[in-house]
Write a structure and sequence with these properties.
By secondary structure, the protein is mainly beta. The chain contains one helix and seven strands. A hairpin with a 6-residue loop joins strand 4 and strand 5. It is globular, with a radius of gyration of 14 Å.
Length: 141
């Protein structure tokens, strides 16, 4: 299992103007500072990761574009064949509209096969979220 979710099947709620080449989900995992996932407008944008094996998650790293982050992120997870259950709420800080904010969250170690991150409250008036990097750290079981 990769540490960054790069080889995990993943889904996102939306992509700005459906332009997956420029703003698609793959850009959260490509380690480039030049690319990002940019959601379309709307409330409650989300990302899901389906891990190829069972993992124990301990940290979450999210790098937002300032002005396009989330005041509240809800983490949900489950084992294969189960329903998603809430793990925790995270509260990233939006530094300012011109900077990229990087947040590291300690997560209560949770064993799961699927992780969903819901961006509940965007700092952008239109509800857009911009993520340059998403990293999930832990260990495979």
């Amino acid at each position: 299992c990769p540490r960054d979710g790069g080889a995990c099947p993943r889904r996102v709620s939306s992509v700005l103007n459906r332009d997956v080449k420029q703003f698609g989900k793959k850009h959260m995992f490509d380690a480039s500072e030049e690319t990002c996932w940019n959601s379309d407008q709307g409330t409650c944008q989300w990302v899901t990761l389906d891990f190829p094996c069972t993992v124990k998650v301990s940290q979450l790293h999210i790098q937002f574009q300032g002005g396009f982050s989330s005041r509240l992120c809800t983490l949900e997870g489950c084992r294969a064949g189960e329903e998603l259950a809430k793990i925790s709420d995270l509260y990233p800080e939006d530094i300012n509209a011109m900077q990229i904010s990087f947040a590291v969250f300690q997560v209560e170690e949770t064993v799961l096969d699927k992780l969903k991150i819901t961006f509940e409250n965007s700092t952008d008036f239109f509800g857009r979220i911009v993520v340059y990097h998403l990293g999930v750290l832990g260990e495979r079981l």
